[in-house]
């Protein structure tokens, strides 16, 4: 895959294909034990590319209740206690800047906005859009997820695999 963002950029607005896009996360026990791998569904979003990379924009919406880790009990606990999905059903991201292979933005979880920087690890044309991968490490306490202190580590590794198509 090509990682140069300047290659083959076609200006336009692209829509996230939620059926071909995923968000995975890894979190560990507070003492570094038992890493948990999980997914959260990406339900939508857009990427707008222009001739000026400084004017690129991106947004994404994730469904808090879609957390899946392979354990029904854990999934219920996370969606209820950690995400409070009944009150805050969506996790949202919006960009505030692009710089080469980094996207800075704001992450909204449980009504709390926190800064986040995504590192783009791959980028490739798909003919009518693009496929991109990005990673970030989020401090869950800063992001508003305070449940589980003493049980769950503060840092959560997010990996996004996103496919966008021309709108």
Polypeptide structure, described:
- With 167 residues, the protein is mostly beta strands.
- The chain has one helix at residues 72-82, and strands spanning 12-16, 22-27, 36-40, 42-49, 57-63, 90-99, 102-109, 112-125, 129-139, 155-166.
Descriptive labels:
mainly beta, 10 strands, 7% helix
Can you count the helices?
1
Strand composition percent:
over 45%
End-to-end span in angstroms?
23 Å
Give unreliable regions as ranges.
none
| Average predicted confidence as pLDDT | 90
| DSSP strand tally | 10
Indicate the percent of residues in helices.
under 10%
Main sheet? 8 strands, antiparallel, barrel
- Describe the global form: elongated
Strand order of the largest sheet: 1-4-5-6-7-8-9-10
Radius of gyration of CA atoms, rounded to a whole number: 16 Å
């Amino acid at each position: 895959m090509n990682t140069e963002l300047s290659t083959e950029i076609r200006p336009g607005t692209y829509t996230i294909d939620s059926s071909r896009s995923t968000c995975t996360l890894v979190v560990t026990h507070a003492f570094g034990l038992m890493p948990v791998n999980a997914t959260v569904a990406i339900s939508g979003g857009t990427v707008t590319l222009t001739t000026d990379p400084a004017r690129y924009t991106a947004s994404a919406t994730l469904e808090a209740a879609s957390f899946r880790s392979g354990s029904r009990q854990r999934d219920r606990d996370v969606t209820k206690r950690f995400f409070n999905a009944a009150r805050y059903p969506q996790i949202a991201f919006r960009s505030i800047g692009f710089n080469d292979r980094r996207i800075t933005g704001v992450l909204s979880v449980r009504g709390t906005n926190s800064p986040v920087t995504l590192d783009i690890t791959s980028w490739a044309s798909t003919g009518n859009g693009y496929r991109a991968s990005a990673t970030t490490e989020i401090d869950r306490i800063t992001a508003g997820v305070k449940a589980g202190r003493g049980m769950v580590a503060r840092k959560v590794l997010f990996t996004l695999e996103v496919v966008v198509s021309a709108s």
